[in-house]
Amino acid sequence: MQIFCRYAGIFAMLALLAGCVGLESDFDERPADISLSVLEKRMLDARDPQRVFLKAKSYVQKQIITDLHDNSQQICEVRYLAPDRLSMLMRKDNQPVTAIILNGESAWHVDYEKRNVTPIVGLALEQLRVMRRLGDPDDSYRDLFGKVELSLCRMGESEYYKLVCTPKMRGGYNLVLYVGKDSCLLHRIRIPEKDYEVRVDRYALYEGVMVAEETISSTQRSKVFFNRLNAELSPQDFLPPVF
User: Fold this and answer.
1) Is residue 236 part of a domain?
2) Does a structural domain hold residue 29?
3) Which residues contact 140 (CB under 8 A, 6 or more apart)?
4) Looking at the domain assignment, is residue 232 inside a domain?
């Protein structure tokens, strides 16, 4: 899906792991002045004008995750290998703590401290695959979700396109996405059923691509410090460890 150039899946998975940021209400909701397909094109132009990210076959991104309660920090390393491999590894004091690994039709949660690997199945697997597909260039929102409602709204002094995305699978979570009307960049992702939200505070240019460099929830702040396109990755990097 061109709309967030693969990073939206990271935001959504972080939203599932993070907490509510203190939800600011939107208001003055009204019909959108453009179609969903036009918005997708504008978002791609804003994030990836030269299409270098869209054409990338892999990437590695590293973030510092700061706990807002005790200021402790972890490193989150995200790896992607086309077409359907994604992993998120959390490290603390340079030691692996937990990981989520998606490899095609299979996925695992890894607890390094307990030396335990748990398969992710059923609804949780389907939700994880949806998160990954949020950035797939061959998908559109209408292909991915059962229903997408597009409108305009205000939040504070700014205007946003609001996308309410209803999943196809029963029991799945709705996603509410807020995209800046003028910037056409993702501003917030909400999961209403869990009262969760991730807000993008800052974008920065990496290798010609606008990357959400700083994001925040009520429990943690994330800051990107490394971003590499077309990194050398192997399919073996997306298999669970054997303890």
Assistant:
1) no
2) yes
3) 1, 36, 37, 40
4) no
One-letter amino acid identity for 48? D
Give CA 182 to chain center in angstroms: 21
| Domain assignment of residue 243, yes or no | no
Identify the burial level of 107 via C-beta atoms within 10 angstroms of its C-beta, where 0-12 means exposed, 13-18 middle and 19 or more buried: buried
Closest CA to 2 of 64, 56, 73, 68: 56
For 53-67, write each residue's pLDDT tens digit: 888 999 999 999 999
Quote the CA–CA distance of 83 and 199 in Å, as a whole number: 27
User: For residue 18, what is the domain's CATH number?
Assistant: 2.50.20
Of 39-43, 46-50, 210-214, 215-219, minimum mean pLDDT range = 215-219
Q: How many CB atoms lie within 10 A of CB 4?
A: 24
Domain that residue 126 falls in: 2-225
Nearest to 12 by CA among 123, 88, 89: 88
Q: What is the pTM of this model?
A: 0.86
Mean local confidence (pLDDT), 214-219: 87
Residue labelled with tokens 């700061």: 66
Residue 138 pLDDT > 80: no
Number of residues assigned to the chain:
243
The domain tally of the chain equals 1
CB 74 within 8 A of CB 97: yes
